[in-house]
């Protein structure tokens, strides 16, 4: 009889005291590393173009409640290398962004998110052809976070800066990172 009561109490305690790792409200910082791609239109160039490689993002934000946050970040794309017709150049591209973040908590440790906002993307070319360009473009992202502790999460995301203005290519970052939430 005592054994059945102990089992019932253990089961009830499991439901009454779930693991509470949901992100706390307040400030957070993080970083992401992954594959970047600037989708350079190879048909408009004569020669070889490589616009994929390792890149990353650092960001900080403020979570207002369990559904809404605001965030600012810096994205560094892999260098684009182009060569052909005896010419070569390297293009360095980065962006600063400001986004609103919508969060969908799935349970106490796992959440999905979406981001939308604006990015200021800049590129500078060196080599045989020099130049620079900047544009303010829409940015969007989707991802998921898994909270290892109440303050630390592992994140996976896909971010796109949309083409337009002085930029005729989309800029993507698909990566994995970590976030730390100050409690």
Mean pLDDT: 85
| Cα end-to-end separation | 44 Å
Strand percentage lies at: over 45%
CATH architecture: Beta Barrel
From the 3D structure, determine the CATH topology.
Porin
Short structural description:
With 183 residues, this protein is mainly beta.
Set down the secondary structure blueprint.
Elements: H1 2-16, E1 26-37, E2 48-50, E3 52-63, E4 68-76, E5 80-84, E6 87-105, E7 110-127, E8 131-147, E9 152-161, E10 171-181
Antiparallel strand pairs: 1-3, 1-10, 2-5, 3-4, 4-6, 5-6, 6-7, 7-8, 8-9, 9-10
What this model shows, in words?
This protein is mostly beta strands and 183 residues long. The protein has a single domain (2-181), classed as Porin, CATH 2.40.160. Helix content is 8%, strand content 63%. It contains one helix and ten strands, in the order αββββββββββ. An eight-stranded antiparallel β-barrel has the order 1-3-4-6-7-8-9-10. β3 and β4 form a beta hairpin. It is elongated. Residues 9-20 have low confidence and may be disordered.
Distinctive features:
183 residues, Porin, eight-stranded antiparallel β-barrel, elongated, 1 helix, mainly beta
């Amino acid at each position: 009889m005592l054994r059945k009561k102990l089992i019932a109490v253990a089961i009830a305690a499991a439901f009454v005291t779930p693991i509470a790792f949901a992100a706390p409200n307040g400030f957070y910082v993080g970083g992401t590393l992954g594959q970047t791609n600037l989708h350079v239109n190879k048909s408009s160039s004569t020669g070889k173009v490589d616009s994929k490689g390792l890149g990353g993002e650092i960001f900080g934000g403020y979570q207002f409640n369990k559904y809404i946050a605001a965030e600012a970040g810096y994205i560094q794309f892999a260098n684009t290398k182009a060569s052909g017709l005896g010419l070569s150049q390297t293009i360095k591209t980065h962006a600063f962004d400001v986004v609103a973040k919508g969060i969908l908590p799935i349970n106490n440790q796992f959440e999905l998110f979406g981001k939308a906002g604006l990015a200021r993307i800049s590129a500078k070319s060196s080599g045989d052809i020099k130049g620079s360009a900047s544009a303010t473009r829409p940015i969007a992202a989707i991802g998921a976070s898994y909270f290892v502790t109440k303050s630390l999460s592992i994140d996976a995301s896909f971010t796109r800066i949309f083409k337009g203005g002085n930029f005729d290519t989309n800029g993507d970052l698909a990566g994995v990172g970590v976030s730390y939430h100050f409690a």
